[in-house]
Amino acid sequence: MTEFTKEQVEELQKCKNDPVYFINNYVKFIHFKDGLTGIKLYEPQEKLINKYHNNRFNILKAPRQVVGKSSTAIFYILHQIIFQDYGTVGIFSHHQNRSIDLLDRLKVAYENLPKWMQHGVRINNRTTFELENGSRVIAASISSTHTRGQNFSLILLDEIGNNSYTKVEEFFNSVFPIIAANKFTKVIINSSKDFYEEQESYFNKIWKDSEDGKNSFVRTVIKWYEIPGRDEEWKEQMIANIGIDAWNQEFECESAEDLDAIQ
Description:
By secondary structure, the protein is α/β, with parallel strands linked by helices. Helices cover about 45% and strands about 20% of the residues. The chain contains ten helices and twelve strands.
């Protein structure tokens, strides 16, 4: 049995109560340039983490490769499995390999926590990561069927704007009866765009239903210019490299309807 110092007990309690504090002080990730490094969340990310913590249903629209929306969700999931016993988290994306990549990021962050903060690992394979406190994370594609009977404590739907309307609708129809039966289950949805092959996506339906008060999802939009270092000069360089259409789709998060209006 692990014996904790008074300081460690105080830190554990502070981290449990404040996921932003936990992430900023204890979570590490692999940066493409700096290697393994600590994290200092941007202000929009801190607000997002607090929304995840204080609301059951969250939906985020943010540019790709700007805010680190998927990694931010993974850092919050790490907090949940450390400080919540016997939780089951599902990471679902458009491809299983994408979900596995996100699970790998979580494993790196876990392995680099202080030893006194870790629980020990029961299962560690390609698609499942389970701790000795009974919490586990499962990685699968959104079209997977073998995980749909699980009693999830948290579900991450990553970049579902890349999935067809039908595929996401089928997923929701299969998992939401279980979610509705558990009043503590959280759902995090993110995407950098809200259409699939120029057609409306199920992400867009959820977003619009939230605007109309038809569901309980809390909406968040993070703009490219909210991140330090992203200014007009950076924007012009990106447009020169990728073109205005790609810019509008990936960084302005325009919907198919909005793009038609622009054209």
